[in-house]
């Protein structure tokens, strides 16, 4: 699956160069203005300008601005942890609303880069509250862009669009309009069925970015367009666009952008079957200085390396690359779960805060009423008793609702929202427990991986609604074959896993064959389209792979790979000899 997560981070870094605010006209202010204007287009020159400034000569406001710019330029080296510490130390001494919002933008970027979703969402709440209270909304509106980028990163794309629309209600520069349109295009690729988009949507963004006269914006817009072209199978044009922009991008300091660019080219080469070109992409990514900054590209590179090595018959390298890929994929899936939990926690805290405010209002009203009734006689005490009973009842109801909400969020954190079965994180936790328990008693455990065949074709040809239908229908069909003692989970995308205690690999293969046949006989017309829905199965057990979950997963996944390689729609059992 093509991934393109770097755009929100790069846009948060990039767009600010187009947003400049008036400062004092002293010599030091002039140098700070120059550094700020160049911080994105030429960060090295911006750094030299800062170094030429005598820090001792700066007043408090200038010193804060200098510190902000010095921290900002650290983004190009990827040291977001240090950036965040310095930003947090800077905030208390800032008096200017504009500079504080700039620092907030930098902090949002740092939280995003560090995958610190909980603190990022807490800061988002602060930004929203301060913006709503401000009398200078038009001046602060551009800095909502960082908020929009962060919400896109946690897959809250509608919220991202809402804050972009809010910012665009105020006059903005061409650079901001370009950045906002590009972020919206990125959100569309994540949420809108590909057939509802058109080339014109992306060509308009490119033209808008050209008017901003910032080369980086244009390059990011072209890369987004190439991603769209790949999704609609226009690979030649996508590759042409990438080749035209490669030199421009590779001359920048954006490591994530360069790696993502290589990843998109790799996706194209994989799609068209240019294995020699794909091998070169793998080598470039795995030797790229700073590659750890963009682990999504590393994940793709190891997956390609595993497949290419298997094609050459180098099964040892294929296995090692697969383990690296599996580790990174697990990391990405864990991150997705953490995002979901952070969003749910943020929503719960917001609801809890609102409930507390409502209860305080009722409490204050009660106290006011008690004061007014203090001079009344005993008959009015009955009214006070009723009000106190009502407050107590309200507290009980709120407590009950809070407990229900917590249970609901705990369920959401463990259950896949689309298919209503366990997600990967819940599967890993429960599978490890079952394996440990079975190991003590030497009971065999079988693991079955299955993957819907040519699922991307279903999505691209019939839309995401048909794809969602296929996933849910596949799960429902498989469940008719299962008993109550099977651990069943969606591992990500169109890949699923089943773990069963007490079965051998041979018995598991017979079990998998029943599921395969049930899927093959499905009638897909109720989806509104006619297409073939089949699956490939890989089966392994603890007799061959042992009771370590990582090894068991790797062996089942290799068996699944062999099933797909041999023509799909079949069951393949893991065999250690395949690695020799």
Automatic annotation (TrEMBL):
Record protein name field: diguanylate cyclase
CDD domains the record matches: GGDEF
Residues of the signal peptide: 1-27
EC number(s) recorded for this UniProt protein: 2.7.7.65
Span of domain GGDEF: 443-576
GO function terms (MF aspect): diguanylate cyclase activity
Catalyses which reaction(s): 2 GTP = 3',3'-c-di-GMP + 2 diphosphate
Gene3D superfamilies documented for this protein: 3.30.70.270
Transmembrane segments: 382-400
InterPro entries associated with the record: Diguanylate_Cyclase, GGDEF_dom, Nucleotide_cyclase, Rev_trsase/Diguanyl_cyclase
Coiled-coil ranges from the UniProt annotation: 352-379
Pfam family name, one: GGDEF
Keywords: Coiled coil, Membrane, Nucleotidyltransferase, Signal, Transferase, Transmembrane, Transmembrane helix
């Amino acid at each position: 699956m093509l991934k393109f997560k770097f755009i929100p981070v790069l846009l948060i870094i990039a767009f600010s160069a187009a947003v400049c605010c008036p400062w004092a006209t002293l010599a030091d202010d002039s140098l700070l203005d120059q550094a700020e204007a160049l911080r994105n287009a030429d960060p090295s020159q911006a750094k030299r300008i800062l170094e030429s400034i005598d820090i001792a000569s700066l007043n408090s406001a200038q010193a804060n601005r200098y510190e902000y710019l010095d921290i900002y330029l650290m983004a190009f080296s990827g040291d977001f942890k240090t950036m965040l510490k310095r930003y947090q130390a800077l905030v208390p001494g800032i008096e200017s609303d504009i500079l504080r919002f700039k620092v907030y933008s930098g902090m949002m970027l740092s939280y995003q880069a560090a995958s610190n979703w909980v603190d990022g969402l807490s800061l988002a709440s602060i930004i929203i509250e301060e913006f709503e209270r401000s009398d200078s909304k038009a001046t602060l509106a551009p800095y909502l862009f960082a908020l929009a980028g962060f919400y896109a990163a946690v897959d809250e794309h509608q919220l991202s669009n809402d804050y972009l629309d809010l910012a665009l209600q105020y006059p903005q520069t061409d650079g901001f309009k370009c950045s906002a349109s590009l972020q919206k295009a990125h959100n569309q690729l994540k949420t809108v069925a590909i057939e509802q988009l058109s080339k014109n949507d992306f060509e308009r963004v490119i033209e808008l970015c050209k008017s901003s006269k910032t080369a980086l914006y244009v390059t990011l817009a072209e890369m987004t367009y190439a991603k769209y072209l790949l999704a609609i199978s226009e690979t030649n044009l996508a590759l042409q666009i990438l080749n035209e922009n490669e030199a421009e991008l590779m001359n920048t300091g954006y490591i994530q952008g360069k790696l993502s660019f290589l990843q998109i080219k790799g996706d194209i080469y994989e799609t068209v079957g240019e294995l020699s070109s794909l091998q070169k992409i793998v080598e470039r990514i795995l030797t790229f200085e700073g590659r750890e900054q963009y682990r999504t590209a590393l994940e793709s590179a190891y997956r390609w390396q595993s497949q290419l090595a298997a094609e050459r018959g180098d099964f040892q390298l294929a296995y090692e690359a697969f383990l690296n890929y599996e580790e990174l994929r697990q990391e990405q899936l864990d991150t997705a779960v953490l995002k979901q939990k952070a969003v749910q926690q943020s929503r719960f805290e917001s609801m809890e805060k609102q409930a507390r405010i409502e209860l305080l209002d009722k409490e204050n009203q009660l106290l006011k009423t008690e004061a007014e009734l203090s001079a009344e006689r005993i008959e009015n005490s009955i009214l006070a008793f009723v009000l106190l009973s009502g407050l107590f009842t309200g507290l009980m109801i709120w407590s009950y609702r809070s407990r229900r909400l917590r249970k609901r969020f705990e369920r959401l954190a463990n259950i896949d929202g689309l298919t209503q079965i366990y997600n990967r994180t819940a599967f890993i936790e429960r599978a490890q427990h079952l394996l440990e328990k079975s190991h003590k008693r030497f009971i065999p455990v079988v693991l079955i991986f299955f993957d819907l065949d040519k699922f991307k074709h279903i999505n691209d040809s019939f839309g995401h609604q048909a794809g969602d239908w296929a996933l849910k229908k596949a799960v429902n069909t498989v469940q008719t074959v299962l008993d109550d003692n099977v651990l069943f989970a969606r591992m990500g995308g169109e890949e699923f896993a089943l773990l069963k205690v007490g079965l051998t690999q041979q018995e598991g293969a017979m079990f998998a064959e029943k599921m395969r046949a049930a899927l093959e006989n499905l009638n897909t017309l109720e989806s509104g389209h006619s297409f073939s829905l089949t699956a490939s199965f890989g089966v392994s057990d603890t007799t061959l792979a042992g009771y370590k979950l990582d090894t068991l997963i790797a062996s089942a996944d290799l068996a699944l790979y062999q099933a797909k390689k041999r023509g799909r729609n079949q069951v393949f059992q893991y065999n250690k000899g395949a690695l020799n």
